[in-house]
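User: Could you go from structure to sequence for me? I need the amino acid at each position, not a summary. Structure tokens:
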């Protein structure tokens, strides 16, 4: 739930056989509350018992149960097989020879807005998780909303629940996520998950 505040949109992955699960409802409810754009990806369409048309109906019913707006109901739907590495925007496209994830990537680029912020403003980072490393110490994981971060930069940590308590810190290491891996960097800007 905290991570949803760090993203500009979500891909709701729904199993083509199992359909909408209880956790699907929870995640979608939180995404809609934050007015995040949603891309629905019906996965595992390669399974013989897949029922993508029925799953689409279940997802649309869920959107309506959660009082989604017209704009939110008009989200893109894709059909995929993550195991086989392909996605399509229309089930009729499954007969094509060329199958890859390009339709999913294009939908993300076209539908999810790019990060906004002012690179010249004071640095603002929304920390969503705290990690610890015995060599580095405490590690704050968050998204840069404004400005930029550099190694050796001084910063002030402010707790939303206790705004009067402020702690001065120095950025000693800076990592940026590249997929699921952390990469050591010296500088990061708006939209970066660090």
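Assistant: Here is the amino acid at each position, in order:
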């Amino acid at each position: 739930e905290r991570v949803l505040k760090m993203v500009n949109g979500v891909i709701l992955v729904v199993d083509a056989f199992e359909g909408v699960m209880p956790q699907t409802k929870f995640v979608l409810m939180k995404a809609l509350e934050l007015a995040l754009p949603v891309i629905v990806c019906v996965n595992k369409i390669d399974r013989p018992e897949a029922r993508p048309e029925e799953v689409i109906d279940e997802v649309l019913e869920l959107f309506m149960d959660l009082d989604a707006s017209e704009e939110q109901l008009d989200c893109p739907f894709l059909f995929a097989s993550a195991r086989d590495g392909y996605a399509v925007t229309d089930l009729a496209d499954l007969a094509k020879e060329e199958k890859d994830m390009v339709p999913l990537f294009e939908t993300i680029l076209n539908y999810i807005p790019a990060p906004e912020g002012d690179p010249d403003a004071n640095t603002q980072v929304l920390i969503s998780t705290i990690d610890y490393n015995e060599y580095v110490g405490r590690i704050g994981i968050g998204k840069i909303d404004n400005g930029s971060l550099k190694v050796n930069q001084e910063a002030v940590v402010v707790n939303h629940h206790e705004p009067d308590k402020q702690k001065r810190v120095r950025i000693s290491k800076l990592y940026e996520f590249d997929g699921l891996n952390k990469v050591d960097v010296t500088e990061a800007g708006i939209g970066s998950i660090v």
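One structural detail worth keeping in mind: The mean pLDDT is 89.
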